[in-house]
Amino acid sequence: MQRRLVVTVAVLALIAGGVTGCKKKSEEQAQPPQSVVSTAKSATTNAPPSPSATGLTGEQLFKQHCAVCHPNGGNTITPSKTLSAKAMADRSKITKPEDIVKIMRHPGPGMNKFDEGMISNDDAKKIGEYVLATFP
């Protein structure tokens, strides 16, 4: 009798753990990417952040928005398209921060779009300046 009770409790524990685990995965999958959340938040306020509202440096902004796909100036999606200033100039004639802002606003396949509601023009320019200065 005691063995049967132990087996029953063990089975119930496995079932409960499995249900809880599935629920966590469903909740994680249901969460939209942070970029979607940020865009949705700015869309609901109908006002992009003021140009210098963040007060963050180009490096901080790069780490916040870009470093996941461009660690150390690389490119996890298209490895041949690094953020090296020389490579960008040779490949795409990108030579100034404004060129990088244009790419952020209208990216090619594989890159997220960063509109003014997500990153102000001043902050986007800070990112461009940081990229050109940091990844020669």
TrEMBL record:
Its main location: other. Residues 53-135 form the Cytochrome c domain. Keywords: Electron transport, Heme, Iron, Metal-binding, Thylakoid, Transport. The keyword Transcription does not apply. It comes from Geomonas paludis. Residues 22-57 are annotated as: Disordered. This is C-type cytochrome. The keyword Metal-binding applies. Belongs to the cytochrome c family. PetJ subfamily. It is found in: Cellular thylakoid lumen. Residues 29-57 have a biased composition (Polar residues).
